[in-house]
Amino acid sequence: MTELANAFSGASVISASSFDPQHPPSSVIDGEYNTFWLTTGVYPQEIVVQLGEPSLIKGVELMSTGIRKVELAKSEGPSNMWETIADTESNESDSEVQRISLQAPPRVTAGCLRIRVTSGWADCTSLYKVSVLGTAKR
Fold this sequence. Notes:
globular; 8-stranded antiparallel β-sheet; about 0% helix
């Protein structure tokens, strides 16, 4: 398995539902654990990561605070044609960092992944890291 959501692999954040210049969406794949994307406004909030190349996806790990419900969707490229492949609900974390795992079904391929926070334990959430595990299709 390879980490697919980082600059080395060619991944980038191509869309986000909210933007704070001090906590930009690109923070989720910058490899730093002290930076984060801060959601603002109402739910749902979402971020789209374009992988460096189409890949077989095993799962996604999120490091966050305040997320209650989250879903993972995939598309072959940057489009509005999304297929939800996983979702989960997490326990309240009292502002502690959460580690949320979303497992993809077998043989799922994607060029883009959308992480959608459908509800939170507070008015906003923080997403520190998006880790995508899988294998690039070469």
